[in-house]
Design brief:
- This protein is of the alpha+beta class.
- It has three helices and eight strands.
- An eight-stranded mixed beta sheet has the order 2-3-4-1-5-8-7-6.
- A hairpin with a 2-residue loop joins β3 and β4.
- The relative contact order is 0.20.
Length: 133
């Protein structure tokens, strides 16, 4: 793992949350994107080398909708940048971590992504990200 790629925050509404994070960070969102396969719309903010991803559900059965229903708005995941996502998947599976998907899939911000089950990471949903090229 090379660095923290971003911190994902589940929100009920990007329209309401974007102005809050613009004021907080002092910068506008640089990108909004919908990932229909995950039922989510995202908004990205960059502050120095750090990125924040806001996530709004686009359908009631999406993982973000379920997360907000169960836990409310807040930190949803921490994403780590990796150079070789498949090698990291093998390494982490061999170390006993539970992967939530068997193959990397397309995520927001032109990334290939895979998630680790929070039960194997002290309750924190971990995302691995690799630039899709």
């Amino acid at each position: 793992m090379q660095k923290i790629e971003h911190i994902g925050i589940a929100v009920k509404s990007l329209a309401e949350s974007n102005p809050l994070f613009e004021a907080l960070l002092g910068v506008p969102s640089y990108k909004e994107e919908e990932v229909s396969s995950e039922g989510v719309k995202t908004s990205f903010f960059k502050n120095g080398p750090n990125k924040i991803e806001l996530l709004e559900a686009t359908r009631p059965d999406s993982p973000i909708a379920k997360f907000i229903e169960k836990k409310g708005e807040g930190i949803h995941h921490i994403a780590f940048d990796v150079a070789d996502i498949e090698a990291e998947m093998k390494r982490l599976a061999a170390a006993g971590f539970v992967l939530l998907n068997e193959q990397p899939k397309r995520g927001a911000d032109n990334k290939l992504v895979v998630f680790l089950h929070p039960k194997s990471t002290n309750g924190v949903l971990i995302e691995l990200c690799q630039d899709a090229g």
